[in-house]
Amino acid sequence: MLWTSWLLPLLSSSFYEPRPHSTSPPEPPALRFELRHLHAVSAADAHVVFADVPASAARIQQQAPLIKTRTVTAYKPPSFAAHAAARRRSLRLGQSTADFPWDEEEILAPDIEDRETLLELGKMSNNAYVDPEENGWYELGANWTVSYPFGWEPDADGFRGHVFATPDNSTIVLALKGTSSGFLGGGGPTAKKDKLNDNLLFSCCCARVDWTWTAVCGCHRGGWKCDQDCLEESLIEDSLFYPVGTNLYNNLTYMYPTANIWVIGHSLGGALSSLLGATFGVPVVAFESPGEKMAAERLHLPSPPSTLHITHVYHTADPIAMGTCNGVLSSCALAGYAMESRCHLGQSVIYDTVSNLSWSVDIRTHGIVNVIEKILASPWPPAEDEGRQVPVPVLEDDCVECYSWDYGDYPA
Ligand SMILES: *[C@@H]1O[C@H](CO)[C@@H](O)[C@H](O)[C@H]1NC(C)=O
Ligand SMILES: *[C@@H]1O[C@H](CO)[C@@H](O)[C@H](O)[C@H]1NC(C)=O
Ligand SMILES: *[C@@H]1O[C@H](CO)[C@@H](O)[C@H](O)[C@H]1NC(C)=O
Ligand SMILES: *[C@@H]1O[C@H](CO)[C@@H](O)[C@H](O)[C@H]1NC(C)=O
Description:
Largest sheet: 9 strands, mixed
Number of helices: 13
Bound molecules: 2-acetamido-2-deoxy-beta-D-glucopyranose
Distance between the termini: 66 Å
Strand content: 15-25%
Shape: globular
Helix content: 25-40%
């Protein structure tokens, strides 16, 4: 089909008219996704579970919006086992992962410079917040809204979301839910677990804000001293966050062994998406993620030659994504969060809502619905002024975080 549509202009023109030889390759395809599964983690044993969406619900695929694609270079580990072993050697024996044998691959990824593509991915991330029996379904182009039987009880453990697929199963989108904490309204059963994970991964030192706080790990050594080994141990032993994500991803590759997988998510789900993208070399679009670069380092993830297949999308009035969610009196701290990290992996599409929309920095602007409705749903004039649809993606190369802390070997 692609071939013929490419030929058409040639055939319909006069044979005698010389035509410039086209060197540009055919347009990458636009994809349509249908909702295929729900995923969750059982509270009892942290097992990943899925629920199938009945085929009757798949009729939405006729109307779901198209998502534009482009090719990107990504780096995949030779196997997950090799990756896990390199991580262990780095963590336990201090061995460098610099010579990790990444496989370079060209893969199909979402076209993150297309506004409507970001919009649809944002909507797909949003639906991960709620189950179909709650009222909170955001209408994905009005046409993603379906009702179907819900075969399992969402439990109290903080991790669930959706799996979308193209009708031919060639591309799969894994959508990870963000934090459903109290300050975003609602709260719900997952809030408690999410809070512990947030504070472990995204605070400078165990969410030690001041003496009134109960730190989430015991690595603070007085003043601004923090024991680095202790921090890393706590992450590995107390946080199921990354292992649950890698299990989920591995389960998905088992179900769809030949598929091209993308991972998307909002907030905490965005941060985990990025960690999975850095691990498995798959395209990621993360919305309003707290800085996850520090978490990647604390987890000793081997660092791929490039993480440009990971794209962050956030705006400047969101204190969680900007890493300004700190200080004893901040709204974040008052809600029991210390979200102090601010550096992101990959590239970032940053909407300057503070300058361009005169928004104040406010945790209430963090929600994905806000981002969908107020930022992505209509053209962004500052980008359009430059003949673009979205702001220019930037690298956060000179990013600094937790600069007042002194990390080192400070045994208790
Ligand atoms: C699926 O995930 C579970 C953990 O929830 C893991 O024990 C199991 O090995 C995984 N299966 C596959 C085929 O990846
Ligand atoms: C939903 O699908 C219908 C039928 O294809 C279409 O007319 C309508 O514009 C779609 N709605 C949205 C919001 O995309
Ligand atoms: C896609 O995967 C589903 C399982 O989720 C399977 O039922 C269906 O037959 C597959 N479709 C194709 C075209 O392979
Ligand atoms: C948007 O904000 C940037 C500064 O971040 C400024 O340079 C630009 O002129 C603004 N554009 C509009 C249309 O307000």
